[in-house]
Amino acid sequence: MPLQIIRNDITKMKVDAIVNAANSTLAPGGGVCGAIHDAAGPELALECSRLGGCRTGMSKITGAYKLPCRYVIHTVGPIWQGGSSGEEEALRSCYITSLDLARDKGLESIAFPLISSGIFGYPPKDAFKVATRAITDWLMDNEMQVLLAVFNKESLGVSKALYADIKEFIDDNYVAEMDSRFSYNRRKLLKKELAVEEFDSMTICQSCETIGLDSWLDQIDESFSEMVLRKIEEKGITNAECYKKANLDKKLFSKIKGNPDYHPKKSTALALAVALELSLDETKDLLMKAGFALSHSSLFDLIVEYFIARGFYDIFEINEVLFSYDQPLLGISIL
């Protein structure tokens, strides 16, 4: 299963396990930790008191009591000290050890908060990057439904320099959507365009009659799924590497692989273009095979085009920016 970014109260999530951003004593605290203990009831604190605490970067598991999940995995994130004291390694370990515990317990779903990004002071953008890297690396060799709770745009915090560069790109390229009421001149132009299209359609039909329909249809190009599979082979990666880099579900990819006529959502097609690190022209070709095009009247399209045109293919970095603009995400969407 891919990583899903969600907007939700972690104490209300019906998953196999939720992760508690705990302190080293595993005692009830503030923030997410306090909310989890409040929702679970005093029995959770009692069980935690018998575990002998927990070291930074490590994880321990307990029952969930009054929570709707089955288990709570407690992990101790690092306190931010400027970034040069091993914080990143410790934070990464929080996610890996929690996931390992869930896997060893036979669990199929787990939900994380953004560990250490609250009172422990880890910069939210950096905490998000560590979380997504650790989880996606782990998912390359494992299967589990993993959810990451992000409550607002500020939790990610796209850098000012990147935001300004993207904004300039959008300002230079964005074409506002037409008003639903066309001007008189616009209506005349539209009629001319439709007349040309009708003429082109008649020409095509006449050509079909001349060369025969079967011969005409023999000219059909490869399908979307055929191009994806060809590109996977050309890139020298496995199917699993492709769909996991695209943040797609294995079952969905199986449908794409098994059906030459499969028609994906636009976000799915673009996620695969990013995973395959296609050039902008190759991306447009892949989209065309799926019946789509990149439009400069769409902020979603422009943002994705910005990154692909610059050869930047980190799907979670792209999703950070899409999230900040309230756009759909690539791969699995925000819930």
Walk me through what this model shows.
It is a single chain. The chain is an alpha/beta fold and 335 residues long. It folds into 2 domains: 3-157, Leucine Aminopeptidase, subunit E, domain 1 (3-Layer(aba) Sandwich), CATH 3.40.220.10; 221-324, Orthogonal Bundle (434 Repressor (Amino-terminal Domain)). The chain has 14 helices and 6 strands. The protein has a 6-stranded mixed β-sheet with strand order 1-6-5-2-4-3, sandwiched between helices. Strand 3 (59-63) and strand 4 form a beta hairpin. Helix 5 (160-173) crosses helix 13 and helix 9 crosses helix 11. The longest helix has 28 residues, at 184-211. The radius of gyration is 25 Å and the shape is elongated. The two termini are 15 Å apart.
Summarize this structure briefly:
With 335 residues, the protein is an alpha/beta fold. The chain has helices spanning 31-40, 42-49, 87-104, 124-139, 160-173, 184-211, 213-217, 224-235, 239-245, 250-258, 266-275, 280-289, 299-309, 315-324, and strands spanning 3-6, 17-22, 59-63, 71-76, 109-112, 145-149.
What's the SSE blueprint?
Layout: E1 3-6, E2 17-22, H1 31-40, H2 42-49, E3 59-63, E4 71-76, H3 87-104, E5 109-112, H4 124-139, E6 145-149, H5 160-173, H6 184-211, H7 213-217, H8 224-235, H9 239-245, H10 250-258, H11 266-275, H12 280-289, H13 299-309, H14 315-324
Parallel strand pairs: 1-6, 2-4, 2-5, 5-6
Antiparallel strand pairs: 3-4
Helix content: 40-55%
**Gap between N and C termini, in Å?**
15 Å
CATH topology of the largest domain: Leucine Aminopeptidase, subunit E, domain 1
Please give the radius of gyration in angstroms: 25 Å
How many domains comprise the coordinates? 2
Biggest sheet, open or closed, and with what strands and sense?
6 strands, mixed
So, CATH architecture of the largest domain? 3-Layer(aba) Sandwich
